[in-house]
Amino acid sequence: MSKLFIDGAWHAPIGRETLPVYSPADGQVYAEIGRGQAEDIDLAVKAARRAYEGEWGRYSATERGRLLVRIGNKVLEHIDELAGIEARDTGKPLALARKDIEALARYFEFYGGAADKVHGQVIPYLPGYSVNVVREAYGVVAHIIPWNYPAQMLGRTIGPALAMGNASVVKPAEDACMTSLRVAELAVEAGLPAGALNIVTGLGREAGAALAEHPDINLITFTGSPGVGVQVQQAAAVNHVKCVLELGGKSPQVVFEDADLEKAVPIIVGAIIQNAGQTCSAGSRLLIQRSVLDEVLAKVAARFSEMRVGAPDASPDCGPIITRAQFERVKAFIAECDASGLPLAAEGKADSGLPTNGWYVKPRLYGPVPRDHRLAKDEVFGPVLAALPFDDEDDAVRLANGTEYGLVAAIWTENGARQQRLARRLVGGQVFINCYGAGGGVELPFGGVRKSGHGREKGFLALEEFSVTKTVVSHHG
Ligand code: NAD
């Protein structure tokens, strides 16, 4: 698939160049994608603008909603095919890829159902005036998405954008873009007018930067690393464009001495193992009240040791790392932890006969980790969990809030008053009490504060992010 999807059709990149696509399972090249450049981005933005000002822009909210539901149905009709594409492209276990495709369909269903339920306001003003606040599309939206949940990210970002009547230009990650390309084709088959959704593959520093800098973009959404998030936001600032950023986290699971460990332990382990730890909201810090440190660490370690890393079609707990660059980063981080003498509390298992060139990392649990160690603060974006002790509630809050991030937090305690106190004191966009939802919940508003980013996606709030109000004041005497 070495073409770009622009204006409802396949186009070879203007520069005619391609990029190799690697399978994380064995490190081999298995396909090519188009290496889109600034000229291709410009074509896509122009196509989106024409769609927004043309047929697509004239769709009623009801028509947009129906169309999104039809796209969701198309996705479900092709679930086996799409899950296979996603698993091959990302290396994630087939069962997880299938869940991701279900979530993709769910985004279209949810935002299809919501499209005609966004109402404006009527404001009481001076006598003789009527004031209506209406919500409108921004126009052309740029979506730069990462490689960890490519299918889900696509639905999460274009679902609300299209529901509100925007036209979209998507730059998927060069390491995982196959599903986006196929979904764009299915969307047009479902009836989406040409130009409403365009997909330009290519490198971040080329196609991604060109999209972020394009002067005819009205809104940018970006999910990825904090460093690139800054660059995208700078580009948006030059063009005076709003920017929604989701940049990862170092999310704490706070376990008190009265926690129900039977319930907590499998969820705590799952929240870091899922997608080989490559989840922005992975529960990557395990904070344990000191009085139960040994017991909790032992229980989590026992389960951790059972976790298997394996090939996507072998139903492993953990697949390979999605990109070679990320594999190298995770390995380097682990080497640094080991070199610094961090106690390794548990290590998962590797399936026998793994392809030698695949990007497999055995899950690792370290603990107790000193508070000033890099593993206690920085995101690994791999299957590595850091366990740290705390003394009391105040100490737990200090520790939980003590990183530069603020995305998700979880509290494990049976004490109802403590649950509510902590929910208010913990920094982040989501707090889970006796449960955890790494990456899940189409209905649940999601997003960060601090270095985790800003703006909200998912749920109804995303419809507000992807639209802008206009206040219409009428004097009639
Ligand atoms: P990245 O930020 O470089 O890539 C994310 C997206 O941005 C991709 O589509 C990429 O092509 C694009 N991009 C890259 N440079 C760009 C630029 N200059 N202008 C515009 N777009 C650009 O992420 P990465 O290097 O692939 O991963 C690095 C780290 O990012 C990981 O270790 C992890 O910590 C973090 N990450 C976070 C998430 C998340 O969900 N928050 C997802 C993926 C990666």
> Mean pLDDT across all residues, rounded?
97
CATH superfamily of the largest domain: Aldehyde Dehydrogenase, Chain A, domain 1
CATH class of the largest domain: Alpha Beta
Tally of DSSP β-strands: 22
Quaternary state of this entry equals: single chain
Strand order of the largest sheet: 15-17-18-13-12-19-20
Number of domains: 2
> What portion of residues is helical?
25-40%
- Percent strand equals 15-25%
The total of helices stands at 14
Radius of gyration: 23 Å
Ligand names:
nicotinamide-adenine-dinucleotide
Describe this protein's structure.
The protein has 477 residues and is α/β, with parallel strands linked by helices. It contains 14 helices and 22 strands. 55% of the residues are buried. The chain has two domains: 4-248 and 454-474, Aldehyde Dehydrogenase, Chain A, domain 1 (3-Layer(aba) Sandwich), CATH 3.40.605; 252-404 and 408-441, Aldehyde Dehydrogenase, Chain A, domain 2, CATH 3.40.309.10. The model has no long low-confidence stretch (mean pLDDT 97). The strands form six sheets. It has a seven-stranded mixed sheet, sandwiched between helices. Strand 19 (408-412), helix 13 (416-425) and strand 20 (430-433) form a beta-alpha-beta unit.
Summary of the model, kept short:
By secondary structure, the protein is an alpha/beta fold.
